[in-house]
Amino acid sequence: MKLQLISMALATAAATGNAAGAVNVVCQTTKGAIDIVIRPEWSPKGAERFLQLVDAGHFNRVPFFRCLDGVLCQFGFPQSKAAAKKWSAIVDDMKQPALRQFKRGYISFAGAGTNSRTEHLFITLGEKVEHLGTQPWETPIGYVTPASMQQTVSRFNMSYGDIPPWGKGPDVQKLQGPGAAEYLNQNFPALDYIQSCKRR
């Protein structure tokens, strides 16, 4: 019974967007500002890491390098030398059953295995993307507000699609070296970027 009440409370909070302890972040992008609400009670470790990245200036000039219309838009490779710090992986957060079904606007870290979350994240673009949230490292840390999804995120360029070999997007191996910015400018001029992020 107690678990049911907790799950219902989480679901209600997710729907209303109201929660004590929520942290508001605004990111400036090439298509305008996006307002983000971080919910530490959803994913404590993930929320803490995201706010560390924000405070460290990690998101200064970061490309949305993998955007699949109706699925997700991924980011995390900084183009600023000052922000190109190596971040160690953090432990996965506990799953919240009430948040298993990712909703449009949810933000989560993009990992590559158990306890692999570092600095890469994605915004969910679809209203119901079945495979998102199935992995241990995929737990939402918060969400982009509906207004920002409509006014800004919906305008991001989706033409490159997935990364190779599944799409025409950038080669992730080329996004980690000193020539990354030039590589993107020459080959992917229509990419959108986060210019900066800060707490409100």
Structural commentary:
The protein has 200 residues and is of the alpha+beta class. The protein has a single domain, classed as Cyclophilin-like (Cyclophilin, Beta Barrel). 20% of the residues lie in helices and 22% in strands. It is built from four helices and eight strands. It has helices spanning 2-16, 44-55, 146-151, 180-187; strands at 23-29, 32-38, 62-68, 72-75, 106-109, 121-124, 140-144, 193-199. It has an eight-stranded antiparallel barrel. A hairpin with a 2-residue loop joins β1 and β2. The longest helix is centred in the first third of the chain and has 15 residues, at 2-16. 34% of the residues are buried. Mean pLDDT is 89; it is low at 1-17. Keywords: Isomerase, Signal. Residues 32-157 form the PPIase cyclophilin-type domain. It holds the Pfam family Pro_isomerase. One of its GO terms (molecular function) is isomerase activity. This is Peptidylprolyl isomerase.
CATH topology: Cyclophilin
- Total separate domains: 1
- The CATH homologous superfamily corresponds to Cyclophilin-like
Q: Into which percent range does the helicity of residues fall?
A: 10-25%
Q: Count the helices. How many?
A: 4
**Low-confidence runs (pLDDT<50, min 5 residues)?**
1-17
**Spatial order of the strands forming the largest sheet:** 1-2-7-5-6-4-3-8
The separation of the N and C termini measures 37 Å
Question: Mind describing the biggest β-sheet?
Answer: 8 strands, antiparallel, barrel
> What is the CATH architecture assignment?
Beta Barrel
Q: How many extended strands?
A: 8
Strand content: 15-25%
Net shape: globular
User: Any idea what the radius of gyration is?
Assistant: 16 Å
Using the coordinates above, name the CATH class: Mainly Beta
Tell me, rounded to a whole number, the average pLDDT. 89
GO molecular function: isomerase activity
Protein name: Peptidylprolyl isomerase
InterPro entries: Cyclophilin-like_dom_sf, Cyclophilin-type_PPIase_dom, Cyclophilin_A-like
Keywords: Isomerase, Signal
